[in-house]
Amino acid sequence: MANIEKLTTETRNPKTYKLDEMSPLEIVKVMNEEDENVIKAVRNELENIAKAIEICTEALENGGRLIYMGAGTSGRLGLLDAVECPPTFGTPDDLVIGLIAGGEKAFIKAVEGAEDSTTLGEEDLKSIGVNDKDVVIGIAASGRTPYVIYGLRYAKSIGSKTIAIACNKESEVGKETDLAIEVVTGPEVLTGSTRLKAGTAQKMVLNMISTGTMVGIGKVYQNLMVDVVQTNEKLRTRAENIVISATSCSRVEAKKYLELAGGNAKTAIVMILKNCSLEEATERLTKSRGHIRLALLN
């Protein structure tokens, strides 16, 4: 039997012993109060989160990938962060990958026993060809999920950089990795329901890691998502607005240069700000590895 009684995420919250007697307003008030602790818990780990961003940035700049793996809510959060990267940052579909115990079908319906497997994590990593250029981030609120632990163990054995995100101190997953991010959010309002505070904390940490990493590899100029993929009318308008914000040009000019640049907002911005040709803008961005600020120098 799993020994989970001593885990912070499994202990009872004294503020909610009478949860079943509370009114709806009382329930949302206590949940809101408890959620305030998430901010503080994440703040305590900012240095480690920043280190994770540095590790991931270096890996992606050198041909590696960012791979999340988890089970249940943790796995779903990793998948969610991964699938948002291509439309937001224009990344290839295989640059940021989310693995969940039980496979993609487990995103919608739990696959019983998958998280307890000591072999599935390694098998899933092998199926995507994990290698020593990659970073594998194991996400486990409890910090003891076998799927994640054994996956991280394999990743580390082949030279991948490994990071753990857990919500208990001295976690088992943390002991397997190069870097442990342990965000202790305390007992849940509903005992053991880590989709609550623990899930919120994990989402916040993943937001920071992916956003900070994308800034690091040049996917952002100022605070603009300059590699946004224009897959619908809203995003086409957003691309125009990004070019306008970055260059102070008119909408007519933004549309003109985006068309010349084949829809690439980065290239359009450099063309406008440097008053240069498509060829020169493309060359500048190539030399700067996609960093607009560097492409504008000289």
UniProtKB/TrEMBL annotation:
GO terms for biological process: amino sugar catabolic process; N-acetylmuramic acid catabolic process; peptidoglycan turnover. GO terms for molecular function: carbohydrate derivative binding; carbon-oxygen lyase activity; ether hydrolase activity. Residues 32-59 form a coiled coil. Its EC number is 4.2.1.126. InterPro entries: Etherase_MurQ, Glucokinase_regulatory_CS, MURQ/GCKR, SIS_dom, SIS_dom_sf. Keywords: Carbohydrate metabolism, Coiled coil, Lyase. Residues 56-219 form the SIS domain. SUPFAM superfamilies: SIS domain. The active site is at E84, E115. Pathway: Amino-sugar metabolism; 1,6-anhydro-N-acetylmuramate degradation; Amino-sugar metabolism; N-acetylmuramate degradation; Cell wall biogenesis. It catalyses: N-acetyl-D-muramate 6-phosphate + H2O = N-acetyl-D-glucosamine 6-phosphate + (R)-lactate. A lyase-type mechanism (elimination/hydration) is suggested for the cleavage of the lactyl ether bond of MurNAc 6-phosphate, with the formation of an alpha,beta-unsaturated aldehyde intermediate with (E)-stereochemistry, followed by the syn addition of water to give product. PANTHER family: GLUCOKINASE REGULATORY PROTEIN. Homodimer. HAMAP family: MurQ. Belongs to the GCKR-like family. MurNAc-6-P etherase subfamily. Specifically catalyzes the cleavage of the D-lactyl ether substituent of MurNAc 6-phosphate, producing GlcNAc 6-phosphate and D-lactate. This is N-acetylmuramic acid 6-phosphate etherase. It comes from Soehngenia longivitae.
